[in-house]
């Protein structure tokens, strides 16, 4: 029976959570919301897309450790409770700072937008009125057109959310589809405007053809907040100008002024390449530590453990994409002698390996493998288990990393890279997979395990950057490396003669998880982007099977 406690001044008992229950609650929340943020004292202190965490449940207490680029904090946690009207969107942790008696709290939010619904609605309605005034005073590009049907109402059937104002500009038989977003929305919401804009343009054209066949929509005008349109401008360069006209405008809500932005002038790409580690040398360096970890893994399970070299100073051990142990190079004591540090833990647990706790690793791995099992038995019994559901895209990535030819037999299974390039100031950090086909043409592979209407344009982001790096060649002063592309100068695709052609973009997702918006957006991509949409069978954890695919140019293969 769950232990209880009686709170002072209360006549009833309130259930007291055990450290294990807190761990399960936090694991489940982060499995459901991998892009969550952590808020303390009203400020976002960690973004869980990049931060790491561990939970220690020793001596009947639960200690939470959070660390990342934002900082490093440790809190004792005595409770984890869903709060608010949308309980699945927020988890509140009751915390205690060491050395202090007064409890505090940390809030885990599914996204950064913490405004109450009434505040969000008021802001969006105010923006709608401000935008309409701005369009009237926007000069001949706007003033000679009549605004029609602008609204922010949600339409889930068409994937339109209330964050975006949308409507039309009319002038005789000509029209523009228009979509805008206010500066109070998150940057991720602003960055999503082109996806929703393409859907809105398609919707306007379809309904106009039904009711007003004489009305012709030229294209789409995108209105982004001033200073928040960099990614949108970069994407707009790669839209199909034969299918529609595309314009980007920045709106200053304070002055109510609209200023057109040229997508061709979106500045330099903020991207860099990380040098590929020397895998052979790293595996030799970590051989003893790796042997120590693998000796604690049950023999029957060893063949499914993936040993990945993350860098010259780190090796990770993964089960279906979920990291459960790692070896890192560190320093001994106060000196400068390098030592190898082994730690283990899955999700919310990370502990340094010692002679005294080696048995815990073996027990952990056994539990992990039982709960995160592929195959018919695992699928039926563990589908609702947080460890089974955690990081599905990383699971899919690990499957294709083992055999990328499952999605295209023409790809080269010997050259598959992950987490490259590394992008400065990027929300998502790394592309999913980078490979090459047998003709030397680069292949950018974007994966989604769940519905995501932004799949097409997120894949485009990485395609653009890979293409940019591919076009960079050494100058004559580079000596022997003259003519090599930047990828090969950084240690990728050794021995492969890369083709000059632009990369091919693969968008891969389970068939029932391909969002209907994806194909609409793909129709509006520039023909310079050669793409392939690959739909997998729902039992991809057991065996990857392509059930259908569509290619740019209109072809479909089943």
Could you explain how this protein is built, in words?
This protein has 558 residues and is of the alpha+beta class. It folds into four domains: 4-109, no CATH class; 117-261, Trna Endonuclease, Chain: A, domain 1, CATH 3.40.1350; 279-389, no CATH class; 392-557, Trna Endonuclease, Chain: A, domain 1 (3-Layer(aba) Sandwich). It is 27% helix and 30% strand. It is built from 15 helices and 27 strands. It has a seven-stranded antiparallel sheet. A seven-stranded mixed sheet has the order 21-22-23-24-25-26-27, sandwiched between helices. The chain has a six-stranded mixed sheet with strand order 10-11-12-13-14-15, sandwiched between helices. β1 and β2 (13-15) form a beta hairpin. The chain is globular and about 80 Å long. It starts with a strand and ends with a strand.
SSE blueprint:
Blueprint: E1 4-6, E2 13-15, H1 19-32, E3 37-40, E4 43-47, E5 52-56, E6 62-68, E7 71-82, E8 90-96, E9 104-109, H2 117-136, H3 140-143, E10 146-151, E11 164-171, E12 174-181, H4 187-191, H5 193-211, E13 216-225, H6 230-236, E14 245-252, E15 257-261, H7 279-285, H8 287-295, E16 305-311, E17 314-319, E18 322-331, E19 338-344, E20 351-352, H9 358-371, H10 376-382, H11 386-389, H12 392-402, E21 411-417, E22 433-437, E23 442-447, H13 455-471, H14 486-489, E24 504-510, H15 516-523, E25 531-536, E26 546-551, E27 556-557
Parallel strand pairs: 12-13, 13-14, 23-24, 24-25
Antiparallel strand pairs: 1-2, 3-4, 3-9, 5-6, 6-7, 7-8, 8-9, 10-11, 11-12, 14-15, 16-17, 17-18, 18-19, 19-20, 21-22, 22-23, 25-26, 26-27
């Amino acid at each position: 029976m769950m232990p209880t406690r009686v709170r002072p001044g209360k006549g009833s008992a309130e259930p007291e959570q055990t450290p294990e229950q807190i761990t399960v609650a936090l694991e489940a929340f982060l499995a459901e919301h991998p892009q969550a943020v952590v808020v303390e004292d009203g400020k976002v202190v960690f973004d869980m897309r990049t931060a790491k965490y561990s939970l220690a449940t020793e001596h009947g207490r639960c200690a939470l450790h959070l660390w990342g680029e934002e900082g490093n904090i440790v809190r004792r946690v005595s409770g984890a409770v869903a709060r608010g009207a949308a309980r699945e969107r927020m988890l509140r942790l009751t915390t205690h700072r060491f050395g202090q008696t007064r409890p505090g709290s940390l809030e885990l939010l599914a996204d950064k937008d913490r405004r109450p619904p009434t505040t969000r609605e008021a802001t969006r309605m105010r923006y709608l009125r401000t935008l309409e005034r701005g369009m009237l005073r926007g000069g001949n590009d706007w003033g000679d057109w009549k605004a029609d049907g602008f609204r922010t109402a949600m339409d889930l059937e068409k994937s339109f959310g209330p964050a975006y104002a949308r409507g039309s500009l009319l002038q005789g038989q000509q029209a523009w589809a228009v979509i805008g977003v206010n500066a109070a929305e998150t940057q991720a919401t602003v960055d999503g405007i082109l996806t929703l804009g393409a859907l809105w343009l398609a919707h306007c054209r379809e309904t106009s053809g039904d009711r007003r066949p004489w009305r012709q929509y030229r294209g789409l005008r995108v209105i982004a907040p001033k200073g928040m349109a960099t990614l949108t401008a970069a994407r707009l360069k790669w839209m199909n100008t034969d299918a529609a006209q595309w314009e980007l405008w920045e709106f200053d809500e304070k002055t109510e002024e609209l200023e057109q932005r040229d997508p061709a002038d979106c500045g330099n790409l903020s991207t860099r390449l990380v040098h590929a580690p020397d895998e052979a040398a790293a595996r030799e360096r970590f051989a003893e530590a790796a042997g120590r970890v693998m000796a604690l893994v049950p023999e029957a399970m060893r063949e499914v453990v993936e040993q990945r070299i993350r860098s010259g100073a780190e090796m990770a051990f993964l089960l279906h994409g979920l990291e459960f142990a790692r070896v890192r190079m560190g320093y001994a004591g106060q000196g400068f002698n390098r030592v190898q540090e082994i730690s283990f833990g899955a999700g919310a647990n990370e502990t340094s390996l010692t002679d005294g706790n080696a048995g815990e690793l073996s027990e952990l791995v056994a539990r992990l493998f039982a709960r995160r099992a592929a195959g018919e038995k695992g699928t039926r019994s563990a589908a609702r288990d947080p460890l089974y559901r955690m990081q599905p895209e990383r699971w899919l990535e690990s499957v294709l990393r083992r055999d990328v030819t499952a999605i295209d037999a023409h790809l080269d299974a010997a050259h598959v890279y992950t987490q490259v390039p590394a992008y400065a100031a990027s929300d998502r950090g790394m592309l999913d997979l980078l490979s090459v086909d047998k003709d030397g043409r680069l292949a950018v592979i974007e994966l989604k395990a769940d519905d995501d209407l932004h799949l097409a344009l997120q894949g485009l982001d990485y395609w653009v950057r890979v293409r940019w790096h591919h076009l960079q060649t050494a100058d004559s002063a580079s000596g022997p490396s003259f003519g090599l592309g930047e990828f090969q100068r950084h240690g990728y695709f050794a021995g492969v003669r890369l083709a000059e052609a632009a990369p091919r973009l693969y968008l891969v997702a389970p068939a029932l998880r391909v969002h209907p918006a994806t194909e609409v957006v793909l129709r509006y991509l520039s023909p310079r982007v050669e793409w392939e949409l690959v739909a997998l069978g729902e039992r991809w954890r057991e065996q990857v099977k392509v059930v259908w695919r569509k290619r740019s140019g209109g072809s479909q293969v089943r």
